[in-house]
TrEMBL record:
Pfam families: UPAR_LY6 (PF00021). The keyword Signal applies. It comes from Hymenochirus boettgeri. Keywords: Secreted, Signal. GO terms for cellular component: extracellular region. It is found in: Secreted. This is Sodefrin-like factor A. The lineage of its organism: Eukaryota, Metazoa, Chordata, Craniata, Vertebrata. InterPro entries: CNF-like_PLA2_Inhibitor, LY6_UPA_recep-like, Snake_toxin-like_sf. It comes from the Eukaryota. SUPFAM superfamilies: Snake toxin-like.
Length: 215
């Protein structure tokens, strides 16, 4: 299952009474709202490092690092690491989604200087303790639909039901769908569109409390 992502960080603080180094950090962060940053853009299957060209970001974007891991039947199958321009609302976020086939973990970190290197994002832990929520469970590659009549027992902080669709376009188009359980923090990632080199990815996430239809 090919699931990627890309995301970012928010830095909110006050300068009143701050020490000089803290003021510099605040000014660096605020400057990205008005002056576009230059950030490294790259993608790697190494979950620590990647290299690539520097690009000019839009206003309100920071330099971000994203880690994604996919585990199928408790066997690690995908580790992805990327760096790119990240909207500040997505910075320092992390979350998980799970169904009967796989668990996907995602985490984002950011920094606010030209071509800075964000900290390596820390992936969230996953609890196996049932929480009483039951969600539809299915996934498919090559289609944006799947048979969601099966269910999965949610665990830990995954107390939302999720439908995640991803469309990846390069020389050809790949579509995937994932129904399962999600943490609220993963649901907060929301819709996302990103182009890395000749690869364009669009992701949509819709979540419910597990008792009603998609909102």
């Amino acid at each position: 299952m090919l699931y990627l992502l890309g995301i970012l960080c928010v830095l909110s603080t006050q300068t009143t009474g701050a020490k000089f180094p803290e003021r510099i950090q605040v000014l660096d962060a605020l400057s990205s709202y008005y002056y576009p940053l230059s950030c490294t853009t790259c993608l790697s299957t190494d979950n620590q490092v990647c290299q690539g060209p520097s690009v000019t970001c839009q206003n309100n974007y920071f330099c971000g690092s994203t880690r994604v891991t996919i585990t199928a039947y408790d066997i690690p199958v995908i580790n992805l690491f990327s760096m790119s321009c990240m909207h500040h609302h997505s910075c320092d976020e992390k979350g998980t989604i799970t169904n009967s086939d796989a668990t996907i973990k995602r985490a984002v970190s950011c920094c606010s200087n030209d071509n800075c290197t964000p900290p390596i994002p820390t992936l969230p832990d996953r609890s196996y303790k049932p929480n009483g929520i039951v969600c539809p469970s299915c996934s498919s590659i090559g289609s944006l639909t799947c048979d969601s009549t099966d269910t999965v027992q949610c665990t830990g902080d995954e107390d939302m039901c999720v439908q995640q669709s991803i469309t990846i376009t390069a020389n050809s188009t790949l579509r995937t769908i994932f129904h399962g359980c999600a943490t609220k923090s993963y649901c907060d990632f929301n819709a996302y569109s990103k182009t890395l080199f000749n690869l364009k990815m669009e992701m949509k996430i819709a979540c419910t409390s597990g008792k009603s239809g998609l909102r």
